[in-house]
Automatic annotation (TrEMBL), chain A:
Tagged with keyword Oxidoreductase: yes
GO MF annotation list: magnesium ion binding; oxidoreductase activity
Protein name: Pyruvate dehydrogenase E1 component beta subunit
Listed cofactors: thiamine diphosphate
Organism: Micromonospora marina
UniProtKB/TrEMBL annotation, chain B:
GO molecular function: magnesium ion binding; pyruvate dehydrogenase (acetyl-transferring) activity
Keyword Oxidoreductase among record annotations: yes
Organism of this sequence: Micromonospora marina
Pfam families documented for this protein: E1_dh
Dehydrogenase E1 component domain residues: 12-296
Keyword field: Oxidoreductase, Pyruvate, Thiamine pyrophosphate
SUPFAM superfamilies: Thiamin diphosphate-binding fold (THDP-binding)
PANTHER family, alphabetized: PYRUVATE DEHYDROGENASE E1 COMPONENT SUBUNIT ALPHA, PYRUVATE DEHYDROGENASE E1 COMPONENT, ALPHA SUBUNIT BACTERIAL AND ORGANELLAR
Gene Ontology biological-process entries: pyruvate decarboxylation to acetyl-CoA
Protein name (database record): Pyruvate dehydrogenase E1 component alpha subunit
Keyword Oxidoreductase: yes
Cofactor entry: thiamine diphosphate
Superkingdom of this protein's organism: Bacteria
């Protein structure tokens, strides 16, 4: 079985969609030499007209992509660092996202924004370590956080084919994963998946934290039967899939690499308790409120959700009810 | 200090050079996590500009920022401790390479977002002057930054409100792998002209030339003149970032690199000293850096329980993230 790395899965998705659809173009900084090792080989295959290195003008090239989309392109925009999403938040939220409604349905804005290496990269400090997927969920821009190489491929393909803007977070904590992948296929947006079945508690884990949740579930196997739910898309969320799981287990713990206040974990808990009577109070493990990742590695780690915290949260939930 | 002082200028250039070489060794040894953007080859710019500034004057730097912080007078030992993530570092191990700051010597910080610092510096200089200080400021940025809207907006504010900021463009020919010619429509100096700002192009490999140009601009600004731009032509001798020491990115022809490296600011400044004086500076710098490395590696690592210290200046306590 072929081993596929997460990065190569993204590369394959780009190449396959560019082959399938002439309207797909890729824009970004240092993408010709593939500094992020995602756009590898694309320049040679598709030429400089469709693989365009941009000047450092993120706000302009993000809206340039919006304009190109209005005129029929399906641009994919690569950002080198997650914090650049703050810089282009205006362009994505106030323009790309709003155009279809504001124009009374005269247009679509099918742009995909890809961030290879979101979240902490250890040692890249305060301005390079954010994980702002909940911001995009809040404003209602389709947002995916693939946890595995197969999903990285499948969700990127679906993002490119989607007629709305989609943000693809490829967590730094997952980028170096490799997996046996038999068939590469699109993964539908808005559909979660149960990664591990269990009966006592549902753990919702986002992105790279899926692997931490699976490891913790294994460790706890003697004490409890833990189900791990990977939403894959954080907006629109697969509420029916999650409610089905929690209805069986009766308990909910969320682990999320976003900030606590108004984070995706908060939304998940709120929606579940609106629909399911839980056996115990739900719990969440997140970054702190207002997190800024400090530089020193031990501090950087301390601010991110950890396996020990997740284990403790699961145990408390089991004890409580 | 604005007069020529070849010995002092050489000392600064040499200090930055050897600091960076030591820092790269520490990256390879795993003591500096996350790597650095080496300033090698560009030392003459930070040294020349800061030699024409006073201690009270303000500067902001870039992701390639060690030289700016050192040239403005920060302690190399505390700077190195910062890169090693120790509590004895300039930022108590919270900032690292890309955020090193020393407000005590007027360094409002390196900044990891390209093009973002110019407006910050403009505001800081404006406020100090409103409070009666006769200071000026210098903000360093690369050739990549001249395509960021934020920086051009800062040009406009500074020029409109006549804030005495020296905008120092370190044109090293590339933004990561993107050559200037592929990224800049018009010219860098032409951007200043659009806002009515004087612009000077200078040989960034000659620290004394940079100092002279800066001193002249600073004199005009202290006499009531508005902001100016200096474009210092330079060459980056090493990688964009030390990750390139592992992953080869092909974008600079070897002949170009050899040619670029042939004009070395350390040699250009050193040639102006007599050999004995130069050797004495080299020995002193080496001794200072030996002590700096020792100090940096002896510093305690921060306690994870303090990870949220300094998050809020108001005293607000953040909820932690645990279950
Ligand atoms: C706004 C922004 N865009 C992109 C990056 C990623 N990045 C860091 S340094 C760099 C190149 C900067 O080039 P230049 O301004 O010429 O400075 P140099 O690295 O050459 O010193 C890029 C693209 C960033 N940090 N901030
Ligand atoms: Mg440059």
């Amino acid at each position: 079985m072929p081993r596929l790395s997460y990065r190569r899965a993204l590369t394959r998705a780009l190449a396959d969609e560019m082959t399938r659809d002439e309207s797909v173009v890729v824009l970004g900084e240092d993408i010709r030499v593939a500094a992020a090792n995602v756009t590898t080989g694309l320049l040679k295959k598709f030429g400089p007209e469709r693989v365009r290195d941009t000047p450092l003008s993120e706000q302009a090239f993000t809206s340039f992509a919006t304009g190109a989309a209005l005129a029929g392109a399906r641009p994919v925009v690569e950002f080198q660092i997650p914090s650049l999403l703050f810089l282009v938040f205006e362009q994505i939220v106030n323009h790309a996202h709003k155009f279809p409604l504001m124009t009374g349905g005269q247009c679509a804005v099918p742009v995909t924004y890809v961030v290879p290496g979101s979240g902490s990269r250890t040692g890249w400090a305060g301005q390079h370590s954010d994980h702002p997927y909940a911001l995009f969920a809040h404003v209602g821009v389709t947002t995916v956080v693939p946890a595995t190489p197969a999903d990285a491929y499948g969700l990127l393909v679906s993002a490119i084919r989607c007629d709305d803007p989609v943000v693809v977070f490829a967590p730094a904590g997952a980028l170096d994963l490799r997996a046996d992948v038999t068939d590469l296929a699109p993964v539908p947006l808005g559909r979660g998946v149960v990664r591990r079945s269990g009966t006592d508690v549902t753990v919702v884990a986002v992105g790279h934290l899926v692997h931490d949740a699976l490891a913790v579930a294994e460790e706890l196997a003697g004490q409890a039967s833990v189900e791990v739910f990977d939403p894959r898309t954080v907006y629109p969320f697969d509420w029916d899939g999650l409610v089905e799981s929690v209805s069986r287990t009766g308990r909910l713990v969320v682990v999320d690499d976003g900030n606590r206040s108004c984070g995706i974990a908060a939304e998940i808990i709120a929606t579940v308790v609106e629909r399911v009577r839980l056996a115990a109070p739900p719990r969440r493990v997140t970054r702190p409120d207002g997190a800024v990742l400090p530089f020193a590695p031990a501090l950087d780690r301390a601010v991110q959700p950890g396996r020990d915290q997740l284990t403790a949260a699961i145990q408390l939930t089991l004890k409580d009810g | 200090m604005t007069g020529a002082d070849p010995l002092r200028l050489y000392r600064t250039v040499r200090l930055i050079r050897r600091f960076e070489e030591r820092a790269i060794e520490l990256v390879h040894a795993g003591q500096i996590v996350g790597g650095i953007h080496p300033y090698l080859g560009q030392e003459g710019i930070a040294a020349g500009v800061c030699a024409a500034l006073d201690r009270e004057d303000l500067v902001t730097g870039t992701h390639r920022g060690h030289g700016h912080v050192l040239a403005k007078g920060a302690d190399p030992a505390r700077m190195l401790a910062e890169l090693c993530g120790r509590v004895t570092g300039l930022n108590r191990g919270r900032g690292g390479s890309m955020h090193a700051a020393d407000f005590g010597v007027g360094v409002l910080g390196a900044n990891a977002i390209v093009g973002a610092a110019g407006a910050i510096l403009t505001g800081a200089v404006w406020e100090r002057r409103r409070r009666g200080a006769g200071i000026v400021g210098a903000t360093f940025f690369g050739d990549g930054a001249v395509n960021e809207g934020m920086l051009l907006e800062a040009f406009n504010l500074a020029a409109l409100w006549r804030v005495p900021v020296l905008f120092v463009c370190e044109n090293n020919g590339y933004a990561t792998t993107m050559p200037v010619d592929g990224a800049v429509a018009g010219t860098i100096a032409g951007r200043a002209a659009a806002f009515g700002m004087p612009a000077t192009v200078v040989d960034g490999q000659d620290p004394e030339a940079v100092r002279e140009v800066t001193a002249a601009a600073v004199a005009r600004m202290r006499a009531g003149g508005g902001p100016e731009l200096v474009e210092a032509r330079t060459y980056r001798f090493d990688a964009h970032h030390t990750f390139e020491h592992q992953v080869r990115l092909d974008y600079r022809p070897p002949e170009e690199v050899a040619e670029g490296r042939s004009r070395d600011p350390v040699d250009i400044a050193g040639a102006r000293l007599d050999p004995a004086a130069r050797a004495a500076v080299d020995a002193a710098v080496e001794a200072e850096l030996d002590a700096a490395v020792e100090y940096a590696l002896a510093g305690p690592h921060p306690d994870p329980a303090t990870a949220l210290d300094h998050l809020y200046a108001s005293g607000l306590t953040a909820r932690t993230g645990g279950g």
